[in-house]
């Protein structure tokens, strides 16, 4: 039995009211949900988005039929939560320009020796959202192309193409940074 099969089994048992299975399901998936929403949205709102994902999942757990893995089902919900957050953010008035750059500078300032992680996150943030999503699902979370396609709601070929283009974009961005540093 694979770890995904076990997580799905816990979700199905939790659906029937098994609290121990529910706790195991949440613990087994919370890290991947947080990482996924952090890469799609922003680390600063990842906790709230992950919490919202689980709130939605728990209210609709009774409807989970197990046609896909529970992890895939949960990441589909997480994706919808992020989309809803982006829509809501676009509808809200923006802060004054001075406040925005100060917040961004604070967010990007390395707090310790994790400059490489910060640089990677900046590179990922610069990717087209669809490409970033495909790359995070397949390369960071380790999902198959088929699972990633199901989560993103597109064909497998589209996921493969987005991942390839994201890799090209990252290679180009790193090359541009190297050229800037040398020149």
UniProtKB/TrEMBL annotation:
Q: SUPFAM superfamilies annotated for this entry?
A: Sigma2 domain of RNA polymerase sigma factors (SSF88946), Sigma3 and sigma4 domains of RNA polymerase sigma factors (SSF88659)
Name a Pfam family for this protein. Sigma70_r2
GO BP annotations listed: DNA-templated transcription initiation; response to stress
Q: Where is the RNA polymerase sigma-70 region domain?
A: 26-90
Q: Which InterPro entries match?
A: RNA_pol_sigma-70-like, RNA_pol_sigma-70_dom, RNA_pol_sigma70_ECF_CS, RNA_pol_sigma70_r2, RNA_pol_sigma70_r4_t2, RNA_pol_sigma_r2, RNA_pol_sigma_r3/r4-like, WH-like_DNA-bd_sf
> Under the GO molecular function aspect, what terms does this record hold?
DNA binding; sigma factor activity
Instruction: Write the record's keywords in alphabetical order, separated by commas.
Output: DNA-binding, Sigma factor, Transcription, Transcription regulation
**Which part of the chain is the RNA polymerase sigma factor 70 region 4 type domain?**
120-169
The keyword Magnesium appears for this protein: no
Gene3D superfamilies associated with the record: 1.10.1740.10, Winged helix-like DNA-binding domain superfamily/Winged helix DNA-binding domain
What does the sequence similarity comment in the record state about its family?
Belongs to the sigma-70 factor family. ECF subfamily.
Entry protein name? RNA polymerase sigma factor
Provide the organism lineage as a comma list.
Bacteria, Bacillati, Actinomycetota, Actinomycetes, Pseudonocardiales
From the UniProt record, report the name of the gene that encodes this protein.
rpoE
